[in-house]
Amino acid sequence: MLQVLEGQTLVGMEISDLRSLLGPKEPTYRARQLYDALYRKQVADLSEISSLPQAFRNQLLKSHALGLPEAEHRYDSSDGTRRYLLRLEDNRTVEAVLMPEESRDTICISSQVGCPVDCKFCLTALMGLERNLTAGEIVGQVLYVARENGLKGGDSRINVVMMGMGEPLLNLNNVLKATRLLTDPDGIGISQKRITISTSGIVPKIAELGQAEVRPKLAISLNASTEEQRRALMPITRKYHLADLMQACKRYPLRPWEKLTFEYVLLEGVNDSDADARRVVRLLSNLNCKLNLIALNPGPGIPFETPDPGRVHAFQQIIRRSLPCFIRKPRGRDIFAACGQLKRVSTDLVRLA
Ligand code: SAH
Ligand code: SF4
Fold first, then answer.
1. Which atom of ligand 2 is nearest to the CA of 340?
2. N or C end of the chain: smaller count of CB under 10 Å?
3. What average pLDDT score do residues 196-223 get?
């Protein structure tokens, strides 16, 4: 008999989990066959696994769900971006976004349902936190979007960014387990260099992430040039001060091929002056890093304006004298798929469109 663990789905299990699930009665290669089907072949249904005996498949079907999400809605943007509202086992939904580009396809996934961090410019913040996603639900978003769009995990076109809903460092264990599954060369096989998580700055978890053997690249949402400004925009700064965040960044053990990425959402008249840009340079100048600028993506209930392109460009020019700095072009704003616009209520979209 299989060991049935309440609520456990097959997607999300590592090889060691599958071995203990199958127990000593099954031949030892059975767990490897199952792992191969789930992650290398990326089956959408257990019935597709023809290498497994029928009786075994039937037993597995009775005791365990595969655990891939289902799409409740898909929204297609005029710029090629696709936003998926994905339904989980408990009928909650999260968002994942595919951004196709010429040389790569970026899949932006969620790490939590909602988010407990109360950033004042972000729509997801208005939801609060409903729950953490499991490792399987994190991996499942990638498998689902890849499959729907004819992409294969190990395909070097795929980039994964955990920049959808949620604060990944508040769900670190599941995020790390998902990263091991996404990167395993015997399974999905996406390079560690092609997976990035973004954090609002959970200082102790940054150190913990640095200790993990297999880990994604790290991006930090800076979004302000002073302690006070950051406290107003990102109240989490009251708990984890900007000065301590910068210390954690200095200590972070980068791998030889790695740079830190900082993200900075520009809010008109709030954090976008030349003086802000010069302070950002001072904060970042002795780090091995680059900076991405994001002009605010507007949304209902967000009390800020988007600066005009001239201001964004002037800000970039000041930063560029000291470190690499890029302007992130908004993707899928028309379908509310851009950064900070993910809020699971599909009826909002219909009303606002
Ligand atoms: N919680 C994590 C990851 C998800 S948010 C984090 O905050 O880093 C991903 C990125 O979107 C962050 O850099 C965040 O600052 C940015 N963002 C949030 N709201 C935005 C908005 N309205 N316009 C543009 N970027 C936004
Ligand atoms: Fe959460 Fe990131 Fe949005 Fe802040 S910006 S509320 S941390 S998702």
1. 3
2. N
3. 98
